[in-house]
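Homework help board

Subject: predicted structure for assignment chain

Our instructor gave us this sequence and asked us to write out the predicted structure in token form, then describe one feature. I got the tokens but I'm not sure how to describe them. Can anyone check?
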Amino acid sequence: MAELRVVGQGRPVKDAYAKVTGQIQYTGDMKFQGMLYGKLILSDRAHARVVSIDASEALKLPGVEAVVTCFDVPEKPFNTELRFYDHDIPKTEQIFHRVSRHVGDRIGAVAARDLPTAEKALTLIKVEYEDLPAVFDVREAIQEGAPQIHEGIPNAIREIKVSRGDLEAGFAEADLIFEDEYETPIIAQMAMENHVSTALYDHNGKLTVYTSTQNIFAVRNLLSYALDLPMTRVRVVKPPLGGAFGSKIPMVLEAPAAVLAMKTGKPVKVELKRKENFVATRTRHGSVVRLKTGVKKDGTLVAQEIDVLLNTGAYVSSGLNVGMAMSHKGFKPYKVPNLSFRAVPVLTNLPNAGAMRGYGSPQLFAAQQMQFNKIVRALGIDMTEFQLKNLVVPEAETLASVGNPRPVDCVEKGMEMFDWERRVQEAASQDPAARIRRGVGMAVGCHGNGVFGAHRDFISMILKMNEDGTFHLLTPSHDMGNGLPTAEIMVVAEVLGILPEDVETYETDTDVTPWNLGDYSSRGVFVCCNAARKAAEAMRDKLLSLAAMMWETDGSQVSLGTDKEILCADGRKATFTDVILYAHRDRQEDVVVEASYANEAGRTSYGAHFVDLEVDLDTGKVKVNDYVAVHDVGAAINLQSLEGQLEGGIHMGLGYALTEEMTFDEKGAMTNANLKRYQMLKAGDMPEIRIAFIEEGEEPGPYGAKSIGECATVPSGPAVANAVANALNMDVYKIPLRPERILELLGK
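My token output:
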């Protein structure tokens, strides 16, 4: 990395100043002449057939311009998690549903000239239901005789199985076998920006949708299909995005906004409130994870059986995708010779589950690492000793190649930074009668880079040069606040020997930018930055070729200099401006290149987290005092972005372990659908966080880089849960560890 000028340095995201000064325009800030405001008609029943919807009183309200219900749109099923045109996944969703399958299901929408009028119109709409039996618990949903959520699709949608070795022989070899069941909660992604979409339908029959999304091309596919429009008549644009964390991969509000715009002939904005965002978008899958693990007395893992029930909510959505993604991750971190994984996504009458940061990894590793903590306590060995004995190393043979895995380096570096041995000894010697109990804990987690082998994992970019030697990168990358286009700019600048300020981006517009699979699965740096590199290398080659033509010399005689210069072996020099003017004047061609990059391999990022905390035995409250996180990132592209991603991921993981959980009453209605009751951790709740990165390179990552965005949050939850378990001197099987749950564990 020493020879690199730009890559590996720290740099603010390119729109940071506009964001902090309030100058940036998010989708919710955009206004169009004559724009109407849309609101969804959301069901208050967990499972019921919609018999009729009477909107007559609402339509009499001055300012109401349209009401569209489930009876006004074709019953045309699709799956909102579609990734590409011919993606074959079960289709259980529609624009509006004639059967409500969860409280908050959308059954229609209203458009009015202002938001208060639209909200008042909702109160005047009368819905008649025929109630149906409902089921909310995944264990109950798979029992014989349970209410069926969808005709023709069992509640236990499909088994996902992967294995290696001989499980029976492995358990026969074990000295001890541990069998346990763990539960993780349904939680919300909680992006700062709620979901919002604005649709325009013009006099030429063209639909344009500005929307907070992570996948413009998938949304275009779905709108084209659902509304019977050719793709030339559908344009999807992503303005600046105020966070996503997976919740904005699927099509959520785009179709209702489009239907209202097509009916009224006016722009329509549909924006959810926080309460609606909880129940009418997506959640993280709740899970029940059963683990059977066989170990030797020295802690060597010999066999493990993983069995997962995923609560996918009312629609198939991404349930199968999450289960399949989870299946791969169980095989990546440990040298377990005999390993079996089974997952079953289960339909229930709860809000639709979907993608959330980690895509199955947080559930799997929460359970696995909590059981490992139980195992080492039973064996009387240290957790770090257990980890170092079993974690994969670069030479390890695993089910699938994991490239250059460095989890051992992460643990060793973390132990040093955290002063692990001293803290463990101090916690062990504390007064057992003290009201405040100190606990230290750690956990390891991993996550993949891209979707190699699962989907068509590629992206295309266009790079064009301006007459002054500056560049525009047309990128279909979705910046979610994580600064991906900034990293792409840094890569282009590195290749061309220019400053990042010499590159501007135009992003995510289906009419202008080339195709992209979408931004998720931690493919930003690993895949998208490789495309930026390939485009920059194509531009470099084009500039050198044009210079050789201009000088009438062999291409081997020209090379790239610095400061927008091209050098000839005979001493001649030319600026980038000289070259583009030659191309325009003498060849009458522009200096533009296109490059597509397809992911070449599946690779894995790793992290080890260490926690020092206190538990108040009288109140059950937990205070995290110190936190160390070390991650294997291959190499840094933008060091400042890496640090921010890791700190944000830790915040999310702490909430997963300690406070966040969507709770529901006996009728399936969410009981804590506001920020006060949901209890996200505030800035003042966060501990001191110390971080480090292992940079040993990863092929084929750009400059050796791999992802951190999702992996950042994976070890955090179990590290905290293990520290709490150690403080209480008992095993933990369920998160979050809210004060009332801790008091329950203590018998108080």
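Reply (TA_rk): Your tokens look well-formed. For the description, you could write something like this. The mean pLDDT is 96. That's the kind of observation they're looking for.
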